[in-house]
Amino acid sequence: MRTILLFLLLTTSLSAQTWKKTLSERLPYLGHRNWIVVVDAAYPAQTSAGIETILCNESQEKVVKAVMEELAKTKHVRPVIFIDKELQFVSEKYAPGISDYRKTLNLVLSNSKPNALPHETIISMLDEAGKTYKVLLLKTKLTLPYTSVFFRLDCGYWTDEAETQLRKDFQ
Question: Looking at residue 50, what is its pLDDT?
Fold first, then answer.
């Protein structure tokens, strides 16, 4: 019973305006090492206390676009985007509509360079982050495999190049 109550507290079904408002309200609290993940309908509920799931009842494309738009407004974080490497190999025979989804996702992410890694690798990274940091999962109504889009947040005002140089100077 406690697990069910915890699940209900962590999982919320929201209208389009409400989930967007929730995303907008949560984003200022999120920072380096937090994640925002846009997932398909079959993505499992996770038990880590740091993971909050919001049911969006929207298309994956709309939710990914909304996340990208909100992140573009911030100065404190920038996304590092991950997609499942398996996505490029999913066949239309087994997942009708996957070719159109890939084209749409490529358009939505056209100004980004997503990192394609095996699904289990990304899930391991997410699980590890969820032990210490907040993860916001936005669950869509999409029913195609390997379509999750993972946004790992990095510092928006400190570059990888600056960090590398700092580490060299520090030694």
Answer: 85
